[in-house]
Specification:
- By secondary structure, the protein is mostly beta strands.
- It has one domain: Glycosyl hydrolase domain, family 43 (Tachylectin-2, Chain A), CATH 2.115.10.20.
- 7% of the residues lie in helices and 43% in strands.
- It is built from 3 helices and 24 strands.
- The strands form 5 sheets. Strands 10, 11, 12, 13, 14, 15, 16, 17, 18 and 19 form a 10-stranded mixed β-sheet that branches.
- A hairpin with a 6-residue loop joins strand 20 and strand 21.
- The longest helix has 14 residues.
- It is globular and about 60 Å long.
- The protein starts with 7 loop residues before the first helix and ends in an 11-residue tail after the last strand.
- 45% of the residues are buried.
Length: 388
């Protein structure tokens, strides 16, 4: 919810806090934690490279973009990065929605205006969580639109011939297989066989099997990039206290007050060593509990298991970083290093700003090497090919 806003037991049973502290210590000491599975990551995240700039700064400090950039998605295409962020109920100066930035190094960003021409002139509508997929020469921008009615959002798709747009809405809604009135946070994912899948969040009211009611994740197959197959499966439901969004939440649309309403949102999938890792953000985005965790499966449609009892990948640092999450993952300019791109609150909690840190794969599972708030090495540039 946002408002404008090969043994899995080894991953889930490790002492999370201790493993995270040990990992950060090893990282600081320079012990070689590297991203394995390079073939998978290059296929999933792109393999373009950019030439190094010898005069470029050697370090960066988060945030890398100080303006408002909630729910950042970064597309790597043609040696450049394009970042898309939620605008909620606001419009950019060009009348469009979704803040659009461009960079060559993930650190220096230039604003290009808005990405999408709003499909409605009604200012009551809000627009959340854009993500872009490139297929057969067309760029597809998926997003959530709603806010005029309580807990009513729909997922739509727009298209463009270029990554920077402007995108035009196609007039198509991607309908949930159970006609859920609240569907948000679209995430298209292309598997190694070329088939596209679609992850998104929707509301669940039941408590079957000990789960909490709230927003959680499902997956379906994409047909022709603009239609869901109607075969949706649950990816993950809230089972641990840390994902609490609000206690005693009254929701008139359901004519109920929920003792505990939980939120799991913002899916992003990575294939690593033949397994599918579905990362997600949990808890209330305004609170210190908000962070990133994951579940794992042998098939992209699941079943997914192994969720953590805390945000194991990324979570805040009291007094330093608040509410990091709703991220995407992208390869750095060197074509090898993975970065997690996320938002975090500014000190006054007025805007959520764009941040980046390395994603590394440890024996305990994927971890963000952060969140950082001190100078960090700028992402490495591509190395020129050696002469034979």
């Amino acid at each position: 919810m946002k408002v404008f806003g090969p043994d899995l037991t080894k991953l889930t049973n490790a002492p999370d806090a201790a493993s995270r502290r040990d990992f950060l210590k090893r990282l600081a000491a320079g012990i070689g934690l590297t991203a394995a599975g390079a073939l998978d990551v290059r296929a999933a995240l792109g393999s373009e490279v950019v030439a190094p700039n010898p005069r470029a700064p050697k370090t960066y400090t988060n945030p890398v973009y100080a303006g408002s950039m909630p729910d950042p998605f970064v597309l790597r295409h043609g040696g450049r990065y394009y970042a898309f962020g939620t605008t909620g109920g606001e419009r950019k100066s060009d009348g469009r929605i979704f803040t659009l930035l461009r960079s060559t190094n993930l650190v220096d960003w230039r604003e290009l205006g808005g990405a999408l021409t709003p499909p409605s002139s009604d200012p009551a509508y809000q627009y959340w969580a854009p993500e872009v997929a490139h297929n057969d020469g067309t760029f597809f921008l998926y997003y959530a639109m709603g806010g005029k009615e309580e807990e009513k959002f729909e997922i739509r798709v727009a298209t463009s011939d270029t990554p920077q747009g402007p995108y035009q809405d196609s007039g198509t809604k991607l309908l949930d297989c159970e006609s859920n009135r609240f569907t948000i946070d679209p995430h298209p994912y292309k598997d190694v066989d070329g088939q596209w899948y679609f992850f998104y969040a929707r509301n669940f009211l039941d408590t079957t099997g000990g789960v909490y009611p709230g927003t959680a994740l499902v997956v379906d197959r994409l047909i022709g990039m603009t239609k869901l197959a109607g075969e949706c499966r649950t990816v993950v439901r809230a089972r641990h206290p840390w994902t609490l969004y609000q206690a005693n939440r009254r929701m008139d649309v359901y004519d109920r007050t929920f003792e505990e309403w939980h939120t799991i949102e913002g899916a992003f999938v990575r294939r690593h060593r033949g397994r599918y890792y579905c990362f997600y953000s949990g808890s209330n985005y305004q609170t210190a509990n908000y962070g990133v965790d994951y579940v794992v499966a042998d098939h992209v449609m699941g079943p997914y298991t192994g969720q953590g009892s805390e945000a194991r990948v990324l979570k805040g640092i009291p007094g330093k970083v608040r509410g990091p999450g709703h991220h995407s993952i992208v390869l750095g300019p060197d074509g090898r290093t993975e970065y997690i791109v996320y938002h975090a609150w500014d000190p006054a909690m007025k805007v959520r700003q764009l941040c980046i840190d390395k994603l590394v794969w440890t024996p305990a599972g994927p971890r963000c090497a952060g969140p950082t708030y001190t100078p960090q090495p700028v992402p490495a540039a591509a190395q020129p090919a050696r002469a034979r």
